[in-house]
Amino acid sequence: MKLDLAKISKEALEEVAKATGEKELEGLRIKYFSRKKGILPKITQEIPKLSVTERAGVGTKVRQLRSKLQEALAARSEITKASTEQRVIDITAPGKKIEAGSLHPLTKVINEVKEIFHYLGFTTIEGPEVDTDTYNFQKLNMPPNHPARDAQQTYYINDELLLRTHTSNMQVRYLESHKPPVRVLFPGRCYRRDMPDATHFPSFYQIEGLAVDERISLTDLLGSLDFFVKGFFGPRTKMRSYAHHFPYTEPSIEVEVLHPKKGWLEILGAGMVHPRVLRNGGVDPAKYQGFAFGMGIERLVMLKYGIGDIRILFDNDLRFLNQF
Ligand code: DAH
């Protein structure tokens, strides 16, 4: 027996293309697919009778033809239906809504902080989330066994690598490759081993600021932060600072803003860059001084938008995200 599958395929597709209605299409379905008399099932039945060489690949080809034909029948059926049905267009129906995306509130706030500091000449650069113990701690004046490391519950990858616990990891790294004057922001993701609750999440965002130049003083820091606070929370917002301790700044301060309902709230840590940190970055502390600050973005988002639970920022719930 000789099988010309190509010819059968060509004829079948031509017949389908010419069919003008459901009746004809049904006839073709029977002609090719009917179990007892259909052409394709018949071919399948004949396969065992073919010689071994003739048989090779026939099964696959028949299967391909079967699906091609089924597709053609379905497509033709749609076309004939569409041309016979009377289509009713309701010109009063409302249009289809096109969903527009929006920025995540964290991204929005990061952009806003960047914009405010850009007025003061700060540029932005991002750094690695996986960093070394050296940049995250040691070069920031926190040698092994320093008590401040305890508070920063750290995810270690091995003895040297870790997930950064703060964006301060960028200070020395940046100074090593950039000569003063420096005015730069480091936004990015940080990690700490915290149990999630309304105000903690094991991953969060910070923005770090660093300014190094000749004759930079604490008043420059306070003036810059006041400019930020008024730009971000509103021109009448009150801010205050008090002495604190960070190993990498001396003196160190914490800054609070006056919230209309909640009273004084801490929003950031800051200080004058410790001479040892400057030296670690290759900067001569006899000639240059610097200030640095670091703030948690989630806290800013929550204060600005009145959000009570940090976890909602990471849920990816559109009912929440669509509001921004
Ligand atoms: N790294 C501190 C934190 O994670 C924040 C901070 C405090 C950053 C003082 C600074 C600084 O640059 O000077 O809580």
Describe this structure in words.
Its EC number is 6.1.1.20. This is Phenylalanine--tRNA ligase alpha subunit. The chain folds into 2 domains: 83 residues, no CATH class; 217 residues, 2-Layer Sandwich (BirA Bifunctional Protein, domain 2), CATH 3.30.930. Helix 6 crosses helix 10. It starts with a helix and ends with a helix. The mean pLDDT is 92. Strand 7 and strand 8 form a beta hairpin. The longest helix is centred in the first third of the chain and has 27 residues. The strands form 2 sheets. A 7-stranded mixed beta sheet has the order 1-4-5-9-8-7-6, with helices on both faces. It is built from 13 helices and 9 strands. 40% of the residues lie in helices and 21% in strands. The chain is α+β, with helices and mostly antiparallel strands. Bound molecules: 3,4-dihydroxyphenylalanine. The site of 3,4-dihydroxyphenylalanine has 11 residues, from strand 8 and strand 9.
Q: If you average the pLDDT, what whole number results? A: 92
How many domains, in number, for the residues? 2
Binned, the helix content reads 40-55%
The succession of helices and strands, N to C, reads HHHHHHEEHHEHEEHEEEHEHH
Biggest sheet character: 7 strands, mixed
Rg of Cα set: 35 Å
Strand arrangement, largest sheet? 1-4-5-9-8-7-6
Q: What structural category characterises the helix and strand content?
A: alpha+beta
Binding site for Mg(2+): 250
EC number: 6.1.1.20
Enzyme class: ligase
Family: Belongs to the class-II aminoacyl-tRNA synthetase family. Phe-tRNA synthetase alpha subunit type 1 subfamily.
